[in-house]
């Protein structure tokens, strides 16, 4: 006797009706309050700053006068003397150039330091990896301001760094309130943000591919370039996004460690809102920083799409 053949079950009523929620899903109306709050607290301040950038600065005090003006945008590139002569002014471009240089230096140094650390951590046992991750997370348990003041004590004229330099015969150096101190503070602050995404990418890498590449005659440079780098490039891009953008707008390190001698966009914006009381121009600078940030994010996205490739053993 032939075994009965299984027939495909038919859905009652034919195709599923449109608008009927599938099992395990909820209606989008429940997410509407969260989306509304997110839009209000993200796009709302940006809209206010954009509106302020086209307002007029009052003659006395801070705030804005609700009268349309493009003086803030013109002030970014041009200056006007007492006789009304307008000339090109590159002072603010130099400030943004300093910010870009400090952010680029911080990003490159942090990734160069974090990459071998992440590879070394990924090759340890799971217990050791958890302990190392704990050590990396410890700085986050302390306020950034407190950690920055600790660097002030170390870079001081009688601090521990100068004490070591004097002991080895180099002599005391002026370290505090210099671009060097500001750069060191930025690198120290953002180094964990580079290690964590790189470690996450390297931890999922199959190191047997490296052994296979060595068996095929590959050198260390080829292994890093053709095997390891394609697998961790996503972590590198994440590290760049986490480093460059906040480093570009940093405020604490240039002020406390640089002593105000290292003027970056964050310090310039704060001075326009506080000391100069020029809110329209401060809003203009804020929008320019936002546009540069969006441009950088777009470039990283394009780079990520172009660099996405599979790991290959072809040497």
Structure description:
It is found in: Cell membrane. α3 packs parallel to α7, α8 crosses α9 and α11 runs antiparallel to α12. With 315 residues, this protein is an all-alpha fold. The protein has a two-stranded antiparallel sheet. It has a domain of 215 residues: MetI-like (MetI-like fold). The protein has twelve helices and two strands.
Topology of this structure?
Blueprint: H1 32-52, H2 71-77, E1 78-80, E2 86-88, H3 91-122, H4 126-137, H5 144-155, H6 160-167, H7 179-203, H8 208-215, H9 220-248, H10 252-256, H11 265-273, H12 279-307
CATH superfamily of one domain: MetI-like
Please identify, by name, the CATH architecture of one domain: Orthogonal Bundle
What is the helix tally?
Answer: 12
Overall morphology: globular
Keywords: Cell membrane, Membrane, Transmembrane, Transmembrane helix, Transport
Subcellular location: Cell membrane
Membrane topology: Multi-pass membrane protein
Pfam family, one: BPD_transp_1
